[in-house]
Amino acid sequence: MCFVHQVAVDAPGLQLLDYSAETPLAPGTLVRVPLGRQTVSGVVMACTAMDDSPRAIALRPIEAAFDTLPPLDAAWRELLQFVARYYQRAVGEVIGAALPAQLRNRKPADLATTTPQDLVYRCTEAGLEELGASLARRSVALWRLARALGVPGPEAADAPPDPADSAPLALSEARSLHPQARQVLAEWAQAGWVELVDTAPSAASMPAPDLHPEQAQALQAIAASDGFAPFLLFGVTGSGKTEVYLQAASQVLQRKPGAQVLVLTPEINLTPQLVRRFEQRFGAAHLAVLHSGLSEGQRLRHWLAAHTGRARIVLGTRLAVLASMPSLRLIVVDEEHDTSYKQQEGARYSARDLALWRGRQLGIAVVLGSATPSLESWRAAQTGRYTLLTLTQRASGVLPRVRLADTRRDPTLRASGALIGQTLDAALRQRLERGEQSLLFLNRRGYAPVLSCPDCGWMSDCPHCDAHLVFHRTDRTLRCHHCGFQAAVPRACPGCGSLDLQPVGKGTQRVEEALAEKYPQARIARIDADSTRRKGAAASRFDSVHAGEVDILVGTQMVTKGHDFQRVTLVAALNPDAGLFTHDPRGPERLFAQLMQAAGRAGRAVSDQDGSEASAPEMLVQTGHPEHPLYRALVAHDYPGFAQAELIERERGGMPPFTFQALLRAEHRSFDAVVEFLAAAQQLAVPLAQPLGVTLYPPIPAALARVADVHRMQMLLESQHRGALQRMLTSWRGALAAQRSRVRWAVDVDPLDF
Ligand SMILES: Nc1ncnc2c1ncn2[C@@H]1O[C@H](COP(=O)(O)OP(=O)(O)OP(=O)(O)O)[C@@H](O)[C@H]1O
Ligand SMILES: [Zn+2]
Q1: Which of 178, 406, 551, 587 would bridge with 582, disulfide CB 3.0–4.6 Å?
Q2: 259 C-alpha to center of ligand 1: Å?
Q3: Sequence-ordered list of residues with C-beta below 8 angstroms from that of 233, at least 6 positions apart, any chain
Q4: What does the pLDDT read at residue 609?
Q5: Which of residues 150, 172, 198 is at a domain's end?
């Protein structure tokens, strides 16, 4: 007799494989299995008994099982299979993304796990009476169990029982009891004689502020929900969305012993404030943090804390949506519009969408929060699929006034290389005089996006990519931001020998330089990927901004996200117009969100009636298109108006959220190979697509058609129905795999980038 186990092995490209074992292993058990000449990890997905048939005997045996680790539960295993199926990847690849590497590479013996110490059984009043009276009649083992729970013997019968005297029995101890005792404990729990109590300080030391009426309403709605309940918490920047998350989490934890809450955030390294707020409220011991910046050891520890239930709150970036959380009762997705929730390689999942999937699976509330929701979520709220909760007021401070500075009418901007117009100059000087902070942002790092020769038209192009080399003045290099190619700035033009090479356009370094020239007395800091490469550099720079050691902060979108700056009263965007005219249909949505978020950094601690001398907070946009509807909506702080107009466009253009899309991406060093592969792919697709009503678009080069000498092309598929598209993709993927092409290809379901 042997048992056949279907195992999801940690190997990209592989689906479930069969292995044998002499005793059955519970589904969800982590195992080590042979694969070729190696040993790899895997998760048992199913187990069936089999007779000694030749097939069963021929199976390779499971080498080891991690039996000290509680098995991954059925809900998690379903999630794993759903991700693989929906995003068209092999299960083995999803395992690689979901489990920490150290868990996968260790031997079972090294894994000591701990269970929650703060879940305890306690006798109820009824239990004390009932059990106390009958204690004498029970076996020694039960007598011990009752004693462990602090049940007084018959000798104390005349004193009235007091549950406070009963001793707690930790859940972890209860698990190691004799099976018979465990059974009895379960019966007692059913009879109401003992209860499981959460002694975790769930709404710990830090007192929570009283909610404002709109916040209280939102919290009330979340708390009153039952079953799967998706909410869109639409709150202006600084309206106290985070406070609503904190109190919603706290309620869930109080209500159910051992309950867990998952909080997703786009970025953790940039927003240490968020972690701090959760730590202060719930205690660091009950918090697990999961993001890609952790060391492997840390990641394992935090993952185990979530898996064993020790962590009540799991705070993490997109990968945390795949965490094992056996008692998950609430999911929060902060800044739900943020595109970093979409994984851009391997299994290209959307953490926001998976959060909703998990919420539905478990029948729990999912709170999506944003000041600028994604159009998908906004529409879902408009059509009633999500419940809309609105926060219109800032919790403290006031919303900045948004002003547009017309660059076409500004004589100071005519001078070549001028970056700071009259209006912005006046606004900056005012802040400098009053000792307030200003924040300037633009989405280009480096000094200038390209170096050019005015005589012959030569441009600094990357030899390996279809992109310009960016001029970095600090070390006089030309760098490709796509492939990493780097070269020294040439002395003379490689085209004609001219000595007059000119930087064209502006990057953060150039703005920093211009500011330093114009305001020599100002303390200026720059925050972008270049200035924060060293570990901890970003944190220390943000700290000095918070400490008031910086007058003007220049940066990329890194400075616009989620920071609670207390002294910033001016935010300026330096000509973001490029975002208006991109070919990316999501360009306007992204630009609007980014400008609103940036505006949200100003005026967070300024009150309109406290009579202080502080400047009225404002956001200034230098633009050549002040009449553009997007900017008009920005001035009016009118996200709903903007969203409605965009949704009309999307519907007209047959774009998501009105249709569903998938992209086949293909790349190879040989351009011809890519073209050939996609032509074949198209041929295979036609007969599959037609009966399902899926629209096929011809293959085209990707937006960045060549990176590091690799040619990249793609082909778009579209359908009115998610299910039809899914069916089409599943059969198509099989046919594509059978091609055994040398081209690297992948299907991207619900793509965000083209
Ligand atoms: N009910 C309240 N009473 C007093 N202060 C509050 C209240 N709610 C929130 N705050 C404070 O207001 C500020 C903004 O709140 P919070 O950070 O929760 O807003 P947010 O909507 O999450 O902001 P953002 O959109 O910028 O991320 C914080 O300093 C917070 O402590
Ligand atoms: Zn390059």
Answers
A1: 587
A2: 25
A3: 218, 241, 244, 367, 368, 369, 370, 389, 391
A4: 47
A5: 198
